[in-house]
Amino acid sequence: MSRRFKEYGLIGIGLVAGILVSLQFSAVADKDTELNLPVEELRAFTEVFGRIKSDYVEPVSDKTLITSAINGMVSGLDPHSAYLDADAFKDLQVGTQGEFGGLGIEVGMEDGLVKVISPIEDTPAFNAGVKSGDLIIKLDDTLVKGLSLNDAVKRMRGKPGSSINLTILRKGESKPLVISVTRAVIKVQSVKSKLPEPGFGFVRITQFQEHTGENLATALKNLQKENNGPLKGLVLDLRNDPGGLLTGAVAVASAFLPKDALVVYTEGRTEDAKMHLTASPDNYLRGTGKSDYLKDLPDSFKSVPMVVLVNGGSASASEIVAGALQDQKRAVIMGTQSFGKGSVQTILPLGNNTALKLTTARYFTPSGRSIQAKGIEPDIVVEDPATASFDNAFRLREVDLDKHLTNGQGEDKSEAPAKPAKSQTKVKENDSSKPVITEFGAKNDYQLNQALNLLKGISILHRK
């Protein structure tokens, strides 16, 4: 059977309420696949289909039955594969532009309930106190049990300014919490930057989008201009960055690595799933027709001392960047163990403007590490005292997701990653039921201050 389709390789996590935050990588391919159809199983399927059509208490349309069957087939694979109806497919395409409507949470499905993977920074859900690991059991007066993930996401979408009550089960709470969230048109600023101290730059990437590489180049040039010369050190903040476009991740890594240095490679069953992506314009521009926005970046950014901050919310494309800079000995990784999503999803457009989001490969860091269900381990473990209690008890990671893909390097599927060593700093206990909102990059940002202290030490050593 021969079929022509357009592929989008994805490295991102979950459905967002109103958008799939994903990683896009375009290619066109012809597939010749011989299918050995399981006759007995298909016969059972048709019998069940027929019985439902003839005997179910109420009439059910063919479309409803087939769509439900597809959803069940795909959802049984892993947490990141999904069937996208027309609305979800459209949201995926719109979301990579950095603007979409909804609540601003990345979600998945677990035991028939909507599970919050992560609230996106500076969005209504984040500001309302929704946390990673929360289980949503009701949307206003509608029970989530029995809804598909797409149906739940549709109910969370709505007119900007309107509100929705989320009834949530949270570990450590004796009864459900009701959190009111006001919908908004969400504009995610991908790159933020500043000079926290003279000579030292801070760049935060909240999400990898279509223009992240360009925005990073502009931010770095502005920092050097504001500093009146090359920086002494740079902090790249990837905390709570859930991922995004693969081209954006390759671009960010390429800004700091030598030309043609390996950034990431992928392995899968098909030839299309096997890629080696280096710090080259061919790999981060990918036929967009854009000029090389990193071409004029000052050479000093290839050698400036760097610290990369990560935590349990750093996933996917964030882990690609951190892993590449760590393996290439280009930066010190600081913080806590990352999320551990090391799989690649491909968008396969189908008929009627629908699509299949299918896990097709694992990705590997330059040294050959698979971070799937494991994550990036920091060179220096530094916990944030403001969130350590919550993170240690309730932080959700890939290995905690039902049906997560195995690591692929001999690690047992059920084995959770080892907890990072405790920081020597005394951690202040917090009431885990209260929202903990850390303003990354603020003066009291503990992990940032530790990164700056390290860079100052390196700067002193370089002067000697």
From TrEMBL:
<feature type="region of interest" description="Disordered">
    <location>
        <begin position="406"/>
        <end position="436"/>
    </location>
</feature>
<dbReference type="Pfam" id="PF13180">
    <property type="entry name" value="PDZ_2"/>
</dbReference>
<dbReference type="Pfam" id="PF22694">
    <property type="entry name" value="CtpB_N-like"/>
</dbReference>
<dbReference type="InterPro" id="IPR029045">
    <property type="entry name" value="ClpP/crotonase-like_dom_sf"/>
</dbReference>
<dbReference type="InterPro" id="IPR055210">
    <property type="entry name" value="CtpA/B_N"/>
</dbReference>
<dbReference type="InterPro" id="IPR004447">
    <property type="entry name" value="Peptidase_S41A"/>
</dbReference>
<feature type="domain" description="PDZ">
    <location>
        <begin position="89"/>
        <end position="157"/>
    </location>
</feature>
<dbReference type="InterPro" id="IPR036034">
    <property type="entry name" value="PDZ_sf"/>
</dbReference>
<dbReference type="InterPro" id="IPR001478">
    <property type="entry name" value="PDZ"/>
</dbReference>
<keyword id="KW-0645">Protease</keyword>
<feature type="compositionally biased region" description="Basic and acidic residues">
    <location>
        <begin position="406"/>
        <end position="416"/>
    </location>
</feature>
<dbReference type="GO" id="GO:0030288">
    <property type="term" value="C:outer membrane-bounded periplasmic space"/>
</dbReference>
<comment type="similarity">
    <text>Belongs to the peptidase S41A family.</text>
</comment>
<keyword id="KW-0720">Serine protease</keyword>
<dbReference type="Pfam" id="PF03572">
    <property type="entry name" value="Peptidase_S41"/>
</dbReference>
<dbReference type="GO" id="GO:0004252">
    <property type="term" value="F:serine-type endopeptidase activity"/>
</dbReference>
<dbReference type="GO" id="GO:0006508">
    <property type="term" value="P:proteolysis"/>
</dbReference>
<dbReference type="GO" id="GO:0007165">
    <property type="term" value="P:signal transduction"/>
</dbReference>
<keyword id="KW-0378">Hydrolase</keyword>
<dbReference type="InterPro" id="IPR005151">
    <property type="entry name" value="Tail-specific_protease"/>
</dbReference>
<protein>
    <submittedName>
        <fullName>Carboxyl-terminal protease</fullName>
        <ecNumber>3.4.21.102</ecNumber>
    </submittedName>
</protein>
